[in-house]
Amino acid sequence: MAQFRFWEGAAVPPHSHPHEQIGLLLKGRQRLTIGERTIEIEAGSTYVIPGGMLHSAVALAESEAIDVFSPPREDYFPVDEAGRLQTSRARLQAD
To answer: pTM score, two decimals?
Structure first.
């Protein structure tokens, strides 16, 4: 799970990743392009982006969103000083 904050006019450039992405816009308004479809969403809106699908966003107002990725995005996990991923499983095994 990840929380994102956007200032008005901020843009997420077109990109894709293998993870399915499910989100909830908590605050603000955004224009999302998912594949060939562009929609405007507001606080309380949800969205689903299939894995591998090209997508982008523009904040039409200051915005905040929570996204869940499946499978989890390891590139968002913290790393220790040695560069090892610190997943909850890794932390439990280290204890």
So the answer is: 0.79
pLDDT tens, per residue, the chain with 95 residues: 899 999 999 999 999 999 999 999 999 999 999 999 999 999 999 999 999 999 999 999 999 999 999 988 877 777 777 777 666 554 444 44
Calpha distance 84→94 (Å, rounded): 12
CATH of 2-94, one of 2.60.120.10, 1.10.340.30, 1.10.10.10, 1.10.260.40: 2.60.120.10
What are the residue boundaries of the structural domains of the chain, listed by start? 2-94
Tell me the C-alpha to C-alpha distance, in Å, between residue 42 and each of 12, 23, 32, 55, 82. 17, 12, 11, 17, 41
